[in-house]
Write a structure and sequence with these properties.
Blueprint: E1 3-7, H1 13-26, H2 39-48, E2 53-60, E3 63-72, E4 77-85, H3 94-108, E5 113-119, H4 136-142, H5 151-157, E6 161-166, E7 176-182
Parallel strand pairs: 4-5
Antiparallel strand pairs: 1-2, 2-3, 3-4, 5-7, 6-7
Helix pairs in contact: 1-2
This protein binds coenzyme A.
Length: 186
């Protein structure tokens, strides 16, 4: 069965439920990300009902295997949120296709900058477990993925740069990593 990308708001109720389940399972390493009862479903509903959000879903036959979205935050800047692939379908190129699709859509609408936050709550990067306030510029410039792996590697591969760290926002030593990419150069 061929994998296809469809508008998120065209999916069925069952596929919408699957979108919540993928959010929960793909982000299981992030305790604060949609892990409580009903939180992932509430996040799907929030995006679905937000007129400033647009998204796409990847279907393999009837099965939803990943989804991506963006929030129209600024006149020329969108926040990529979320981007998740079902755990058993990761590293098969699905994320790459979805990020390219949302970026193409953003360029069509004249967006210059795409940005995102990718948390480190599990020691996936060298910014985990430290008092980043002690030297934020140094930690920001030197950040790398640890052997545990982190989505940071995926985003760098797709041209995103680390533009900053938000210290302790998920608890002491657990930062959010802010990344951005230039989409259009006027
Ligand atoms: C990150 C994610 C969206 C990437 O989608 P994907 O379909 O798995 O990625 P692709 O197959 O297109 O690209 C794979 C490449 O991305 C990188 N990559 C993907 N996931 C990675 C991870 N967890 N750790 C390190 N690198 C990763 C690698 O470079 C990989 O290439 P490799 O398999 O040759 O090493 C997906 O793995 C996912 O949903 N992960 C969990 C949720 C998450 O962390 N989302 C980001 C929240 S901000």
């Amino acid at each position: 069965m061929a994998v296809e990308l469809v508008d998120f708001r065209s999916i069925t109720k069952a596929q919408r439920a699957a979108a919540g389940e993928i959010l929960r399972s793909a982000l299981a390493h992030l305790p604060s990300a949609h892990q409580g009862a009903g939180e992932a479903e509430a996040e799907v509903d929030l995006r679905w009902n937000d007129g400033d959000w647009l998204g796409s879903a990847t279907l393999d036959g009837e099965r939803l295997v990943g989804w991506v979205g963006a929030i129209r935050t600024y006149s020329h800047g969108w926040e990529l949120h979320p981007l998740v692939v079902a755990p058993d379908r990761q590293r098969q190129g699905i994320g790459t296709t979805m990020i390219a699709t949302i970026e193409a859509r953003a360029r069509q609408e004249g967006v210059l900058t795409m940005f995102l936050g990718t948390d480190d709550e599990h020691g996936g990067t060298t910014a985990f477990g430290y008092d980043l306030w002690a030297d934020l510029p140094r930690y920001t410039a030197a950040i790398e993925a640890s052997t545990r792996g982190h989505a940071l590697t995926f985003y760098r591969r797709h041209g995103y740069q680390v533009i900053g760290l938000l210290p302790d926002v998920n608890g002491p030593g657990r930062p959010d990593i802010l990344m951005a990419k230039r989409l259009l150069h006027l």
